Amino acid sequence: EDKVVQSPLSLVVHEGDTVTLNCSYEVTNFRSLLWYKQEKKAPTFLFMLTSSGIEKKSGRLSSILDKKELFSILNITATQTGDSAIYLCAVRFLMETSGSRLTFGEGTQLTVNP
Amino acid sequence: DGGITQSPKYLFRKEGQNVTLSCEQNLNHDAMYWYRQDPGQGLRLIYYSQIVNDFQKGDIAEGYSVSREKKESFPLTVTSAQKNPTAFYLCASSREREGPQFFGPGTRLTVL
């Protein structure tokens, strides 16, 4: 069964801290791994990773994929209260008969206190 | 403005009633998706459509139905057969089958 596991499920930090969120997966026919940020309603797209070892970066956020060990990390440096959100990891894999689809992890609830 | 719209934002339904959630996109995306999110959980795939007039079941399709008669629209019907329909429903679309998915604002359905 295809599985995506995120850890920790919940994390509370102080402003200025650096955090690392983890996502491990077990899927057949892996295609890519995606990270989303969900504040109140719609998840917003952060990164899509397809190759191992290539860091994707956007401001204080960065992410990397390890296809050998089947995991990805999302780093947030110098956290701000606006980073408080649920961070979702999703893995895309090929279906045998009907294209590809995403499977999501449970998410990590990050709270950044002032 | 290009984007994905969902309506209504909040929906209340009595047990035994069917309801239809709207999802429209003007991004010219081929693929569209419906997810369900329960408190403290990730997103679970209900149905998806890679092209007009074609759709596939996701992991939790029982009690739901969809149609894809137009590229821009992918309505979801929650039928009375869905045993626990109270949840947050998210619609998404993507330009390519393997591109990132972009989400609408969601509909919160409550069954009274």
How are the elements arranged and paired?
The complex is a heterodimer of chains A (114) and B (112).
Chain A lengths: L2 E5 L2 E5 L4 E8 L3 E9 L5 E6 L6 E3 L2 E6 L4 E6 L8 E10 L5 E5 L3 E6 L1
Chain B lengths: L3 E4 L2 E4 L5 E7 L5 E7 L5 E9 L2 E4 L6 E3 L9 E3 L8 E8 L7 E2 L3 E5 L1
Parallel strand pairs in B: 2-11
Antiparallel strand pairs in B: 1-3, 3-8, 4-5, 4-9, 5-6, 7-8, 9-10, 9-11
Descriptive notes:
The complex is a heterodimer of chains A (114) and B (112). Chain A has strands at 3-7, 10-14, 19-26, 30-38, 44-49, 56-58, 61-66, 71-76, 85-94, 100-104, 108-113. Chain A has 114 residues and is an all-beta fold. In chain A, strands 2, 4, 5, 9, 10 and 11 form a six-stranded mixed β-sheet that branches. Chain A is globular. In chain B, strand 4 and strand 5 (43-51) form a beta hairpin. Chain A binds chain B through residues 4, 6, 31-32, 34, 41-45, 48, 88, 90, 92, 95, 98-107, and chain B through 31, 33, 35, 40-45, 48, 50, 56, 58, 90, 97-106.
